[in-house]
Amino acid sequence: MGAAKTSNSKDTYMATAVAFMVIGALYLIDKLIHFSSIGLPWVMNKDNMLLYASICFLIFKRDKSIGFVLLGLWLMMNISLVMSLLGSLSGYLLPLTLLIIGIILFWIAKR
């Protein structure tokens, strides 16, 4: 049990370190080339920093729960963006997708 806990801690530190490096690199690149001046203002949107961190946690951590929680928080904070991207399908597709994701996550948790 101690080895698994150590591995989990290392995964957490690695994912956190990569998230900080990615976000730091984005801020540095923005200072040099200004994403908004090249037509990419969404890259430095404060809400997207949470998305970048969730992706780092999903990629670098074995236990994906933190990544899914961060991704869920980003989704809830940007629900209007998601709905505008889906257009008229958002009335049916978004709730159905959330329901399916919830069922899958519940099934994974029960295993």
Automatic annotation (TrEMBL):
Q: Does the keyword Transmembrane apply?
A: yes
Membrane keyword on record: yes
Record-annotated membrane-spanning stretches = 12-29, 41-60, 67-86, 92-109
The protein's UniProt keywords, in alphabetical order, are: Membrane, Transmembrane, Transmembrane helix
Superkingdom of origin: Bacteria
Q: What is this protein called?
A: Uncharacterized protein
